[in-house]
Amino acid sequence: MDSEPGESWRARFAAQQPEWPDGREVSSVARWLADAPPLVLAAECDRLRRRMAAVARGEAILLQGGDCAETFAAATSQGVRGKLRTLLQMAVVLTHATALPVVKMGRMAGQYAKPRSSPEERQDGRTLPSYRGDAVNGAEFTAQARRPDPWRMRRMYEASATTLNLVRALTTGGFADLRQVHAWNQGFVAGSAAGRRYERLADEIDRTLAFMQACGADLGELTSAEFFVGHEGLLLDYEAALTRVDPGSGRSYATSGHLLWIGERTRDLDGAHVEYFSRIANPIAVKLGPTTTPDTVLGLIDRLDPAREPGRLTLVVRAGADRVRDVLPTLVEKVTAEGAQVCWVSDPMHGNTFTAPSGHKTRRFDAILDEVRGFVEVHQALGTHPGGVHVELTGDDVTECVGGGNEVRTEDLPHRYETACDPRLNHTQSLDLAFLLAEMYRERSASCYPRQSSLSTSNGGLEAR
User: Alpha-carbon distance 183 to 189, whole Å?
Assistant: First the structure.
């Protein structure tokens, strides 16, 4: 693998990049980032790759979730704690149902840039550049806020470092202790059927842990959780500046996150993003929309995973509830026939967005659930492994997606519509999804899963401090 991937992509067309006003400022920021410490270590990325290999083999499940677009203002202890708590609860539900390890990954610590369908936005007769995430410009509809500012990439790095420090402190400092399953649910039990259902599950886990302790089992490994972070590797100036060569292996890593993905709008086979991703050793992913052809997927595999290594490549399908059962089977069959052992993951969010009468972008919980169900059904019919889900969620009680157990109605959307971009599941809806997904996995034949996993059951912890 090329040890200098930071420049080869520049000879290709890079889609969805900001129109920076001053190239000299971009170079100054890139030099600052190049001298900054890595946010993650190569050893952590390699560990995630091993975990993702287990997902590819059907021995584990991936759970990834977080904000559509992170904001600098929300990089707080409370915000990080809420998302982490929600993901830990969902992982407990899935692990209990499947008896499989759950690879936990936040859509966090780097999700500050967003692709847009239009480079400009028009309001009240005025036209300004579109908001491309806090890493590029501000959300306020003013000329000053919408001007792309490359120094925001430095703020992106600093906010990501803050988030990672909080995640590491929480996952190793007792917050993620499995004996805290009841504490994770405080404040959500009384008004939520999913919360009450979770409490019953927590009671069962408590009894199991008490039994294990009475038998003399060592519960030390349950006091922390292994947790990874990932984001869309959209801003290539940022990613290239944070690329580092591991002195032990000589391989190049994007040190901005453990896993990076290529979006639906930037996965051109001859484009700059595919070129850059082909030259880093991280586990990587690609989003696939409903128009994706088998030839395109096979071409992506040839470029991004030529050695066909389990754990290297994840294919995230975002077809929409009405298309997933038609689109997915051919893709899975062609990839399987090619001998590529990829991770198949469902993104049930992006293909199910619509605009409510109030003007708010939203998603129906039933449609999200139906796309996940279709994803699992296709894999069940083909005898392949539905590797997990990638969802946009928050730990807060927002009103952005309609439906769910504690139903959010369309008229409720303005009450707490707080997303910086696309609508997210709230805490209760996220738990609802976890329980319903757990039932789908449980309904699958027990013969679909190996009796024992080669993936360690240790929760582990992030090594870097």
Answer: 11
